[in-house]
Each structure stands twice: as C-alpha cells, then as structure tokens.
Prior knowledge:
- By secondary structure, the protein is mostly helical.
- The chain is 69% helix and 0% strand.
- 25% of the residues are buried.
Amino acid sequence: MTTVIVPDAGTTTRPPVPARRRRAGTVAGAATRWLGILIIAVYTLAPFYWMVVSSLRRTSDIFETTLVPTSWSFESYAQVFGSSTAFGRALLNSLIVATTTTLLALVLGVFAAYAIARLQFRFKSLVLGVIIATSMFPGIAVVVPLLRLFSDIGWINTYQAMIVPSLSFAIPLAIWNLTTFFKQLPFDLEQAAMIDGCTKWQAFRKILLPLAAPGVFTTAILTFIHSWNEFIIALSMVNDPRLQTATVAISKFTGASDFQAPFGAQTAAGVVVTVPLVIMVLLFQRRIVDGLTAGAVK
C-alpha cells in the first residue's frame, strides 16, 4: 500500500538557495568583516603612523602634510638623545618606577585575590567593591593631599613618591583581575594536592599559581603600561631632572627659542616611549588574549 503525504495547505515550500548565491553571500560577509577590521586598524594606527612620520621629518618640514616625508632626517632623534636633554636617564627612571610598581602590585594582588577567592568571610563582595572603587579616583584629586604628606615625611624627589601613588590603581586592578581567575580554578585541584602531601602554600605555589599565569601576565602588562604612561603624579612629586620620568621629560622639551614648539623632538620621544610597549604586547599577545578571554566560555 502506497502512502501519499499531502503537504499542509498553510505551509509554503521555499526553493533551495542556489550554491552560487550562497557563495556570493559568504564572500560579501567576509568582505564586510575585513572592511570593518581595516577601518578600525586605520583609525587606531593613523595617529601612531603620523607620529613616526613627523619624527622623521626635518625641523623645517615639520608642518608638511604629505604621508611620506619629502626629506628623511633623524635630526629629531639626535635632539632627543642630546647631552642637554638627559632623556636616556628619564627612560631609566620610567623603567624603574613601572617595573617596581608592577612587581609590588602582582605580589600583593596575588595573595589578596587568593584570599578573596578561596576564603569564606562576611562582606566579601563589599570588600571587593571597595577595593575596585579606590582606583576610580582621578590622579589630580589626590595630588594635593599626597604632596602635603610626602613633604612632611621627606619623600619629595624620590622614587617611592611616584611608586606608592601608582599602586593605588595597580593593586585594585590586580586584585580584581586575579580574583576572577582564582574563582574559576576548581577546589578539587587544591584538595588533591594536599592529599598527595603538599602543604597549602605548596598547593598554591605549584598548582594554582601556574594555572593563573594568563591572568598574571595580563595584569602585569596592563599595570606596567599604566605606570609607564603615568604623568600627573610624576610631574607633581618630582622636580629633580635626574629623577623625572620620560613622560615628564617630554613635556619639558624646549625648542630653539621661546616661541618655537619642539614638535619634532616631542614626536621622536613619543616614538621611543611607545616602542617598548608595542614590543611587549607583540611578545605576549597570546598571553594577553588568553587572560582577557579566560572564563568567557565555560
């Protein structure tokens, strides 16, 4: 007996989409995505490109609007590293301040984040909220009280006068990021390590900390970038040219006369200050992506 299936009168059967049309839609979608990526890349990289190009122009050609310098010159870089600017010393100061701030923030942030993620105590969410709220105060809001305090205790023109205020942003950032990573690690790992003979410290150091490495790398790089670019605290707490950071040194560049702005030297110094950050991001980009996307998908 043959069974005949009669289609429902209320439904319509759509013809299949031709393969050529499907391929055209796929190509159009891919082209749209790549066009969007290209627009975003040009928008974000154009200022840096213009800074590099301007730093390679002669001082007399600094106001040219061509995409490529008509005459290439390293005159601006020679001015930056001239004997009168001591810019190399400023770069070393920035490295000292940023590295010390990053290390202190990671050490304190790792232990605090572990305690918040693993220990059970009242008002845990409130404590975490207060910690992150402390980093929301703008630097200019704390300059005056810190300047008075550091003047009383003799910290003006010292490295710690720049490091300690930077920690007010770096430590909350480290705690906030690392707490998320420690919460995602199963408690069974720590308990299994302790059953195998590890102490709580050994389980933390040998098991949990390596698993949280993407978060530690991401936090370290973000903290370093913030400390490297910090300006208002370094400008307010240090007036000794031997201790000023690179960002402060750039702001104090002078031209050939009082009526000439040193645009060439400033752009060249901007390139020198930015290059280490670019190299760091390129070297650790996989770690950064892993740290930023960890926990996004269970």
